[in-house]
Specification:
Strand order of the largest sheet: 1-2-3-4-9-8-7-6
Strand content: 25-35%
Number of helices: 15
Structural class: alpha+beta
Number of strands: 42
CATH superfamily of the largest domain: DNA primase, PRIM domain
Radius of gyration: 31 Å
CATH class of the largest domain: Alpha Beta
CATH architecture of the largest domain: Alpha-Beta Complex
Largest sheet: 8 strands, antiparallel, barrel
Distance between the termini: 42 Å
Number of domains: 4
CATH topology of the largest domain: DNA primase, PRIM domain
Length: 835
C-alpha cells in the first residue's frame, strides 16, 4: 500500500510517462465519491475496480471481473492508488510499459458506505458499501485476506450482497462487452491508433488540455444507435378467469400482480408509459420512465405491470393507489413503484406477436438482462402451477396467470392466457351511493354495477374497505358526477335514498361470492381503477381450466430405441413432452433436418428435411429455393404437438437452420461446433470453448455454451437478422481460420480427418445456407440417449464430458432451464460486427 504522505508514489514509480499515454499522478481535491471499473487486457485480462477516496482512486485488480452472484467471491488484488485523472481514461498503454494493453471504461458511477459504516473501515481490512453505477448496483463487500508467509501482494475478496440487484455469475462480464464511454469493444479500442494521447512532459494545464483532446476524440468515435422510432401502443392480451390451474408442461405460470397493467414504449432516453386502455401515463410514472431511459434500450414495446409494495413486501393495490395519489414525488425507497415486465411485443421495428409466449419471454430476458430495480423481468415456472398457486394464496396474494407456452399474442381476451384467483375480485361501475347516518361518514355504501348485453346491471352494494381519507376523496369525486336518475334498472327497495351518479368511476372490489340474485356477498372496497374505461367493465365468470390433451397419439411406445439403456419410443416421447417448453423458443419456425431412426438408433437412421404430407397437420412446410433454382418444401414446427408428430414418425434428433422460416435469407444464429480429435480429452475442448468465447467477447459478441451430447461443445451466437448468408459464413470462416493460424497446434479450420489429428476442428460450416446444427435439448441418436444441453460458462469450466444428461433427466433439465443462471440463454440483441 502506498505511503500516506505520497499515495501515488508507487503509481508514478512504475510508469515512464514519456512512453505511456496514462495520466501522470497528481492528488486531487478530496471529498468525491466516484467509482469506476476499467476492463484491462494486460498480461492477462482483468477488471480494475477503483473507488475515489482521499483524492485518489483506491484500486484492485479483479481477476475474473465482478459478479452479481452472492455466492461468488472474486479475488481482488490490491494495486497502487491511481490519480483521479485516470477515472476517464480509455485507450491503449504501449506494450512493454507497466500495465501495457487495452483499457476500456467498463462502468462508472458513485459509491458510499452503507449506513453505520465508514470509508475508514478500509484500513481495517473490510468495506461494506453501495454502488450506483451503470452496471454495478446495490450492496457490495470488500474483505482483505490474511497474507500467506512470504506473500507480497495484498489479496482481497469482492462479493455481492444478496439484494434486489443480485443475479447470476455471468450477468455482468458475460453480457456487458462494450464501453460505457464510447460503446466500443475491446478490439475497436485496441485498433484505434488515435486513442493514445502522448503525455510526454505534460502536467497541470498541458495535461488537462491533453485530456480534453482525448475526450473530444472519444466523443467523435462514440457509437450512436440508428433510430427506428418509438413503437405505437397496441391492445393488450387479456386473461380468462378459470376454475383451476391448467396442468401440464405446455403452460408457464407467473404471479398475478396486484397493480396497474402498463405497456412501455422505449428507445434510448425516450420512453412512454401507457395504460391497458392506451392512455399516456408517462407523467404519473416518471420514476419508472427515467429508470427505463437509463437502460438505453433499442426501440421496443414491453408489456408488464406496475406495482407498489405493502409493509410486508407484497404487491398491494391499495399501496399503489396511495403512491399515485401523492404523486411521483412521493415515490421514495419506503414506497417504491416497480415494473415487472412479462412480454415483448416489438423490437427494433420487428413485430414479435406471432412468436410463442415463452419465446417472447426469453427474448425479453435477453433484452433486459442488464435491468436493475425498479425494472425487472417477471419470473415464471414451467408446469408445477398448482404449487405456485398454493404458495401465493398462502401468502395472501391475488393468484396466478398461466400462459400456453407456444401461443401467439392477441390483443384481446383468450384462453391462451388464463388467470386463477385466490380470492374473488372484480371491477364494478359505481352507479350511486347511500347517505350515512354517522356524522363522520360521507356515505354508507356504494351501488355496484356491471355492463351486460348493452345495459348496466345492479350487482349489490359495498360498505367496507374505506378509511376516512378515502371516503373524503370519493365524496369530492361524487359531487361532480351527480345526476337525478339512475343509469341502471333497480328495484324500488334497493333504490331507496340512493344518490345517483354518472356511471364513470370504476371500483375494484373483493367479495366472498355472488348470491343467487347476482349480488356480491361480504364485499370490501379495494380501490378506484382509473386505467380502465367504465364501458369495458363486464362480469367475469369462471370457465373450466384447459385440459392437457395432445392431438398426437404415440404408437409402439414399448419399442426400444436405445438398446444400451432400454429407453423406448414412449420414454423419448415423454421426454419431448416435458422439454417442449424449453426446446420451442430455439426450434420453433426454423427449417429442420430430422434424424429418424424408426427401428432404433442401432439400426438404419437417416436425415429427412422434406415432407410429402405424411407427418400430419402439426408439422408445417416452408418452400425453399434450392441450388438448381427449383423449390422444395422443408419441415418446421411451432408447437409441442409438432415435435410429437415428428417423434411419432421415428425422429430422435432435431437439427435447425440458422434462420427462421419468415426470414430465411437473414440468419440470426451462428454456431461454432468444437469437434475434437479422438485422442483429445474434454479438458482441451473446454479450454477451446473458453478461448473462443474470449475472442468473440473482444469483438463485442455475447456467446453461449452448449454441450453437444456427443464429444464436443457448441458455441452459440444469437444475432439480429439483417445480414445475408454469404456475410454470415464469411465471418465465421475468417474467425475460425484466424484461430487456427494463431495456434496451429491446437486448432484446424479444415474438416479433413488427416489435418485434425491431435487438434480441434472449429466447424464453421454450419453457418452456411442450408446447413443445420443440433437444437438445444434435442436428444441424440447415441449410446445412452444423451441430450444437447445449454450450460453457463461457469458450469462449463467444471464439466468433464459433453454428454452429462440424457432423456431420463427431464425433471432436472426443466428445473435448470427455469433457473436465474440460464434465464435468457441463447438470446441477445446484437449485430454482426465487421471483422
Amino acid at each position: 500500500m502506498a505511503a500516506r504522505d505520497d499515495p501515488l508514489r508507487q503509481y508514478n514509480a512504475k510508469r515512464d510517462f514519456k512512453a505511456t499515454p496514462e495520466p501522470a499522478g497528481k492528488v486531487s481535491a478530496k471529498g468525491g465519491n466516484r467509482f469506476i471499473v476499467q476492463k484491462h487486457d494486460a498480461t492477462r485480462l482483468h477488471y480494475d475496480f477503483r473507488l475515489e477516496l482521499d483524492g485518489v482512486l483506491k484500486s484492485w485488480a479483479v481477476t475474473k471481473g465482478p459478479s452479481v452472484n452472492p455466492e461468488d467471491k472474486r479475488l481482488a488484488v490490491r494495486t497502487e492508488d491511481h490519480p483521479m485523472a485516470y477515472a476517464d481514461f480509455e485507450g491503449v498503454i504501449p506494450k512493454g510499459e507497466y500495465g501495457g494493453g487495452t483499457v476500456m471504461l467498463w462502468d462508472r458511477g458513485t459509491w458510499e458506505p452503507v449506513p453505520g459504516k465508514s470509508a475508514k473501515d478500509l484500513e481495517k481490512g473490510h468495506l461494506h458499501f453501495t454502488l450506483q453505477g451503470e452496471r454495478m448496483k446495490g450492496e457490495w463487500l470488500l474483505i482483505r485476506l490474511r497474507p500467506r508467509p512470504g506473500e507480497k501482494r495484498e489479496n482481497w475478496l469482492l462479493r455481492k450482497i444478496d439484494d434486489a440487484h443480485a443475479g447470476g455469475s455471468d450477468d455482468l462480464v458475460g453480457r456487458w462487452l462494450t464501453s460505457v464511454l464510447t460503446g466500443r469493444t475491446m478490439m475497436e479500442i485496441a485498433g484505434d491508433k488515435e486513442a493514445a494521447q502522448s503525455l510526454v512532459g505534460t502536467s497541470d494545464k498541458a495535461f488537462a488540455s491533453k485530456m480534453k483532446r482525448a475526450a473530444a476524440h472519444n466523443r467523435k468515435v462514440a457509437k450512436v444507435r440508428k433510430k427506428v422510432g418509438l413503437p405505437k401502443f397496441r391492445p393488450v392480451q387479456l386473461a380468462t378467469l378459470v376454475d383451476d390451474v391448467p396442468a401440464g408442461n405446455d403452460w408457464m405460470h407467473e404471479i398475478k400482480f396486484d397493480g396497474y397493467r402498463a405497456v412501455i414504449a422505449a428507445e434510448g432516453d425516450e420512453v412512454r408509459v401507457y395504460t391497458r386502455a392506451g392512455l399516456d401515463w408517462t407523467d404519473k410514472f416518471q420514476p419508472l420512465a427515467r429508470a427505463v431511459a437509463t437502460l438505453d434500450l433499442p426501440s421496443c414495446l414491453i408489456d408488464g405491470e406496475v406495482v407498489a409494495f405493502d409493509a410486508q413486501g407484497n404487491p398491494d393495490f391499495s399501496s399503489l393507489q396511495a403512491v399515485l395519489k401523492r404523486g411521483h414525488g412521493a415515490q421514495t425507497e419506503s414506497t417504491p413503484l416497480q415494473y415487472f415486465a412479462f412480454d415483448l411485443l416489438e423490437l427494433e421495428g420487428r413485430p414479435l406477436d406471432k412468436l410463442g409466449n415463452l419465446e417472447r419471454k426469453e427474448k425479453l430476458a435477453g433484452l433486459l438482462s442488464h435491468a436493475q430495480p425498479p425494472i425487472a423481468v417477471a419470473d415464471h415456472v414451467i408446469g408445477a402451477g398448482e404449487k405456485l398457486y398454493r404458495a401465493l394464496c398462502d401468502a395472501g396474494q391475488e393468484g396466478i396467470i398461466a400462459k400456453r407456452i407456444d401461443a401467439a399474442y392477441h390483443g384481446k381476451r383468450s384462453r391462451n392466457w388464463v388467470k386463477v384467483k385466490c380470492t374473488l375480485r372484480q371491477e364494478f361501475v359505481i352507479a350511486g351511493w347511500t347517505p350515512s347516518s354517522a356524522r363522520a361518514r360521507p356515505f354508507a355504501s356504494l351501488i355496484l354495477s356491471q355492463w351486460e348485453d348493452g345495459k348496466l346491471v345492479h350487482k349489490g352494494n359495498v360498505g367496507t374497505g374505506f378509511d376516512a381519507e378515502l371516503m373524503d376523496d370519493l365524496a369530492k369525486r361524487f359531487a361532480k358526477l351527480e345526476q337525478d336518475k339512475p343509469a341502471l334498472e333497480i328495484d324500488r327497495a334497493a333504490a331507496r335514498r340512493v344518490r345517483w351518479l354518472k356511471p364513470e368511476l370504476v371500483a375494484e372490489v373483493a367479495f366472498a361470492e355472488f348470491t343467487a340474485s347476482g349480488s356480491v356477498r361480504h364485499a370490501s372496497f379495494i380501490g378506484l381503477r382509473s386505467d380502465k374505461p367504465a364501458r369495458e367493465v363486464k362480469p367475469e365468470r369462471k370457465v373450466p381450466a384447459p385440459k392437457p390433451e395432445s392431438a398426437i397419439k404415440i404408437s409402439n411406445r414399448d419399442r426400444v430405441l436405445f438398446p444400451e439403456s432400454k429407453a423406448t419410443k414412449g420414454d423419448l416421447a415423454d421426454y419431448y413432452v416435458q422439454l417442449a417448453p424449453l426446446i420451442l423458443p430455439h426450434l420453433a419456425r426454423r427449417p429442420l433436418s430430422l434424424v429418424r431412426c424408426p427401428q432404433g438408433r442401432a439400426k438404419k437412421c437417416f436425415f429427412q428435411k422434406h415432407d410429402s404430407g405424411s407427418f400430419g397437420e402439426h408439422v408445417h412446410h416452408v418452400p425453399i429455393r434450392e441450388k438448381d433454382g427449383g423449390h422444395e418444401d422443408y419441415l418446421h414446427v411451432d408447437t409441442a404437438d409438432g415435435i410429437l408428430a415428428c417423434v411419432q414418425m421415428g425422429t430422435i434428433e432435431f437439427h435447425g437452420w440458422g434462420s427462421h422460416a419468415e426470414t430465411l435469407e437473414q440468419p440470426d444464429r451462428m454456431v461454432f461446433d468444437l469437434d475434437p480429435d479422438e485422442e483429445l480429452d474434454f479438458a482441451a475442448v473446454r479450454k477451446a470453448a473458453l478461448d473462443l468465447r474470449g475472442h468473440l467477447s473482444d469483438i463485442g459478441l455475447v456467446s453461449f455454451a452448449m454441450l453437444s451430447g456427443g464429444k464436443g461443445v457448441h458455441i452459440v451466437v444469437p444475432l439480429r437478422p439483417g445480414h445475408d448468408w454469404d456475410t454470415h459464413k464469411d465471418f465465421s470462416r475468417r474467425l475460425a481460420e484466424a484461430m487456427s493460424q494463431a495456434e496451429p497446434d491446437r486448432f484446424v479450420a479444415n474438416m479433413s480427418k488427416v489435418r485434425r489429428k491431435g487438434r480441434i476442428f472449429i466447424d464453421y460450416l454450419r453457418n452456411q445456407r442450408g446447413s443445420t446444427a443440433i437444437m438445444p435439448y434435442s436428444a441424440r441418436a447415441r449410446e445412452g440417449a444423451p441430450v444437447a444441453v445449454p450450460v453457463t460458462w461457469e458450469e462449463l469450466a467444471e464439466i468433464e464430458k459433453a454428454n452429462v444428461w440424457n432423456i431420463f433427466d427431464a425433471e432436472d433439465l426443466i428445473e435448470r432451464g427455469g433457473s436465474a443462471a440460464l434465464k435468457g440463454w441463447g438470446f441477445a440483441e446484437q449485430d454482426l460486427p465487421p471483422i
